[in-house]
Automatic annotation (TrEMBL):
Keywords linked to the UniProt accession: Glycosidase, Hydrolase
Protein name (database record): Membrane-bound lytic murein transglycosylase B
Xref: InterPro entries: Lysozyme-like_dom_sf, MltB-like, SLT_2
Example GO BP: peptidoglycan catabolic process
Residues covered by the Transglycosylase SLT domain: 2-208
Enzyme class at the top of the EC tree: hydrolase
Single GO MF descriptor: peptidoglycan lytic transglycosylase activity
Entry keyword Hydrolase: yes
Enzyme Commission no: 3.2.1.-
CDD domains: Slt35-like
Length: 220
């Protein structure tokens, strides 16, 4: 798992721990589970996961604060994600995503591993699409299902270094004047498992490139 992706996500989510949220999480989940909110069933399950999480990790539920929607800690995990993906990465005998950045780093890596991140796989490339082919680019999450050969047969101009069997998808990102179009690989789709918004995934990807570039410059 590229460390620059993890660093980018920690920056986007909480400014590296400086903004983990000030909303009492128990109150947030109770209101959303039983109030006049959409997705009440989802939040009822999250409330159950939250109470189990606090018991399993010996954290007083009233002491936990997070985002307005119930996300918590350095990586802004919801309660069910905390229970499924959080790990004791520094091996100190406890899982702590609220004050331990090492556990947070390992937990984000574990999240992507469990969602089948491909080591050394590409994430995205910009691509120009003709008006005929623009229909293939989605504004919503687009899972790669068709391989490169399929798209070449459709008449799309795909970079020659991409193997015929590689599965691809295409997205559109709204801009002020004209939408950006991108060719996306499996790992971009995995990024959208963390947050389903294509713009979030692209921000994480582009920030990670800047982080890696800066790191390399500083270490020459």
């Amino acid at each position: 798992m590229p460390i620059e992706i993890i660093v980018a996500i920690l920056g986007i989510e909480t400014s590296y721990g400086h903004n983990k949220g000030t909303h009492p999480t128990l109150e947030t989940l109770v209101k959303r589970a039983f109030g006049n909110y959409r997705r009440r069933n989802f939040y009822r399950k999250e409330l159950e996961s939250f109470l189990l999480m606090s018991r399993e990790n010996a954290i007083p539920p009233l002491a936990i604060k997070g985002s307005y929607a119930g996300a918590m800690g350095y990586p802004q995990f919801i309660a069910s994600s905390y229970r499924h993906y959080a790990v004791d990465f520094n091996q100190d005998g406890k899982i702590d995503l609220f004050s331990d950045p090492i556990d947070a780093i390992g937990s984000i890596a574990n999240y992507f591993d469990k969602h089948q991140w491909h080591d050394f796989g590409e994430i995205a490339r910009p691509i120009s699409l003709s008006s005929t082919h623009l229909k293939y680019a989605k504004r919503s999450t687009n899972k790669p299902k068709k391989n490169t050969q399929y798209w070449r047969n459709k008449g799309l101009s795909i970079d020659p270094d991409i193997p015929n069997k590689t599965k691809l998808a295409f997205i559109r990102l709204p801009q002020q004047k004209i939408d950006e179009t991108w060719l996306t690989f499996w790992n971009f789709y995995v990024l959208t498992r963390y947050n389903h918004d294509n713009r979030y995934a692209m921000a994480a990807y582009q920030l990670s490139k800047k982080i890696k570039q800066q790191f390399n410059q500083n270490n020459h």
